[in-house]
Structure formats: C-alpha cells, structure tokens
TrEMBL record:
Name the record gives this protein: Site-specific integrase
Keywords: DNA recombination, DNA-binding
One Pfam family here: Phage_integrase
Domain Tyr recombinase: 231-406
UniProt-recorded Gene Ontology molecular function terms: DNA binding
The family this protein is said to belong to: Belongs to the 'phage' integrase family.
C-alpha cells in the first residue's frame, strides 16, 4: 500500500486522503500556531485550577490553527503494476518538490523577511481596527475600546512614550513598554479592571503576532494580578438602600430609580433589566424567568427563575391594555444616562460611595448573606453556576466575622489587673 512519509518538523506536511476509487488525494497541511483564550466563569472572570500541579494557575482553552492546500495530485493506494508504481514515484517527487517550495516561502513569511508594503505597521491603527471587529460581541468590543483608550492615555502620560501617541511601530512594542503599561494599569485602576484591560491588550498583541505583524510576544511573562477571591466594588447596606429609596429631588428620573431598586432586590444586571418584558413574569406562580444576556452564549446556566413577593410585583406594575408580552417593564435610556441619574441620586442621598449600576448586584449578594441566607440559595438567585463566584462576596460580610470573634466571649485580662 502506497503511503507518504512525513517528518515531524516539516511545515507544511505532505498528507494524503483516501478516495473510494482506490487512489489517495495529496494535500499540504500548514500549522499556523495556536491561540489561547482564557476560561471564564459566568461573570466573565478568569477560572483557575484548584487542584494538582497547576493549582492557582489560570485555565486556558488551546486552539491549534491548521490550514489545508489541495495539490490536485493523486497516487494509487495499491499499485497493480510497474506503470502505476512509477506513476506514484513521480507524483510523490513532484508533491515533495511543491511542499519544499511552500515550506521555504512559509518560513520567510513567518520570520518577517518578506515584509509586504501593504501590511499594517502602526500598532495603534491596528488596535483601532480591532475595536470595530465583528468577531467580538458588543460587550467585548466595549471592553476593547476602553482598553485602547487607556493605552493611548498611558502613552500620552508617560514621557518616554508620549511621542508615540499617534503612531507606534509594531517593533516598538517591547517587553519594557508592556511592563510599564501593566504598572500603569495597576496604578490607575482597582479590582478586576486592570487585569481585564491587560487581558484584552494581550489579545490584540496575539492577533498581531498571528497576522505576521510582530515577530515575538512582548507580553510573555508579564501579568497584572489581583485577589480574584474578593469583590472590590462598593456595596450599599440595607440602611443606605432605605435612605436611597426615601430620597427625592427635582429632576429625578423615576424609571431609572424604579429599575435600580429592582436590581438591588433581585441582583438583575443592567443588560437584563433593560430587556425585561411582562412576558418574563409568570403571574400565576409569582415568578420572574429570563436568560442572562451576559452568559447565555457560553453557559448552560444562563436561565434565572426568581420568586416575586408583593413588593417586587408592585415595583413591576401592571402591563398596559391590551396585554402585550413584549412590552418592556422598564423604559430606560442608555447605560451612560442611567448611571448619570444614578450618581445624582446617590449624591442627593448623602451617600459618598462610588456606586455604579453593577454595584446593585453586589449589594444584593452581600445583604442576602448578611441576613443569614444560605450561600447556595444566594448563588441560585443570582444565576451563578456554582457557589465559587458567590463566595467572593464573603469578604464584605464583616458582621459574620465579628460575630464569630465575639462568640469566644470576654477575655477579661485588662479587668483583672484593675
């Protein structure tokens, strides 16, 4: 049986595909490298290994990129005579000659020796193009844009790199520059923000490498770390929530206020609360059912079923007549306008914390745990796939920690000496 011989280090490799007529079709298989994408939980946070030798290290999904080129050449799988054997020999020799030529051209392109004039050399222009890439979801594009703007700010505010704020050559992206940018992110952000921005920056750099625009990975060995087991956003206590609910002022946006109060008592994200319709409300079972927009494309735990008490049903209100299941429960402006009205409301209430819409979701978790609700119940109400994510809220739960310390009783050391 005729079979081609390949070597492990050949790229491309000469391969064959068996046909039903007793022949084999020859083709070249190129290995274009691999891409790594982080494994994220339902909140978009990096997942880490918890056991084994990899414990504490981030999980990544590895995708190997290969491409085939059909040569339109064929050999006999079971040559029946001398003529077919000679034909196989000549065909394989031609295929190997083509493979070798392709390998040389491929190596030159990969090493950067054949630099095409139309290739993008300005990293900033390349980065800007990626901000509009259709392969990213809407929310990822928003994060990429934020990362781009933060990188431009870094260049402008760093004397050594300020001259590159409009044109930054690909070869200027060095490990030293990346390290300075990582330090800039840490100094000008908090919580998971710096880490997420650095993740998207690395993603753009890896794309540039895959496109043959950069020769090495300047991000290798550089990371932006933070404590992933804690949630660092501000939260509103129940007393602050009551103060907020009772605060009114001229020019207030009642629809924004109604929706945010709903978030405080249901943990619903802004991207979900703005899309809720009366069709999501099951009046017979007093239940709110919907799929979480943020995770529905990558998680089997996107469905949420939330029980509605009298207060929540009153907050939702009754649908218009005639009944339309697609009628929105909350008629909200865009996210920026909602947060603008929210910040004004927070300020009028005399609350000095930095509160965004998503802080309402965190407040729900902390207040539930503070009231003694089982963590598994809180996890299910929030639509988490497990309690690992929910446990991040426990560090805010100071009351339980203090009660645990007080349970030891009085020490009495100071009193005994008086």
């Amino acid at each position: 049986m005729a079979k081609i011989q390949t070597r492990n280090k050949q790229n491309p490799k000469l391969q064959q595909s068996e046909l039903k007529d007793g022949r084999a079709s020859l083709y070249l298989e190129y290995y274009l490298g691999r891409t790594e994408s982080p494994v994220l939980d339902e909140d978009g946070n990096q997942v880490f290994y918890t056991t084994g030798a990899m414990a504490g290290k981030p999980k990544f999904k590895v995708k190997h990129d290969r491409r085939k080129e059909n040569l339109n050449l064929y050999i006999w799988l079971h040559p029946r005579n001398q003529e077919e054997r000679i034909q196989n020999k000549n065909t394989l020799a031609l295929a190997e000659k083509i493979r070798f030529e392709r390998e040389q051209a491929f190596l030159e392109d990969r090493a950067g020796y054949r630099l095409k004039k139309d290739r993008q050399t300005n990293f900033l222009a390349y980065f800007k193009e990626k901000c509009e890439s259709e392969r990213f979801t809407y929310y990822v594009r928003k994060s990429v844009v934020q990362t781009y703007n933060r990188f431009i700010r870094f260049l402008k505010e760093t004397p050594r790199y300020s001259k590159y704020d409009t044109f930054l050559h690909m070869e200027t992206i060095t490990p030293e520059l990346v390290l300075k940018f990582a330090e800039f992110l840490r100094a000008n952000g908090k919580g998971e923000g710096p880490n997420k921005m650095y993740h998207y920056f690395k993603r753009i750099v890896l794309d540039a490498i895959e496109d043959g625009l950069m020769r090495g990975n300047p991000c290798k060995g550089i990371s932006v770390k933070h404590d992933r087991n804690q949630v660092t956003k501000e939260v509103l206590t129940l007393d602050e929530v009551r103060t907020l609910v009772g605060t009114h002022y001229e020019g207030e946006h009642k629809e924004v206020q109604r929706a945010f109060i709903f978030t405080l008592f249901t943990s619903t994200r802004w991207c979900d609360v703005k899309l809720l319709t009366y069709g999501n409300v099951d009046a017979s079972t007093r239940t709110l059912r919907f799929n979480q927009k943020k995770v529905e494309s990558r998680s089997s735990h996107s469905a949420v079923s939330f029980p509605l008490n009298d207060d929540l049903l009153a907050l939702i209100g009754k649908p218009s007549e005639p009944y339309d299941p697609n009628e929105l429960i909350f008629k909200l402006p865009n996210y920026s306008t909602c947060n603008k009205h929210l910040k004004r409301w927070i300020k009028e209430a005399g609350i000095t914390k930095w509160i965004s819409w998503h802080c309402g979701r965190h407040s729900f978790a902390v207040n539930m745990l503070d009231n003694g609700v089982n963590i598994k119940t809180v996890s299910e109400l929030m639509g988490h796939c497990g309690i690992t994510t929910t446990e991040k809220y426990l560090h805010v739960f100071d009351k339980q920690k203090m009660d645990a310390v007080n349970s030891l009783g009085s020490i009495g050391f100071g009193a005994a000496e008086t």
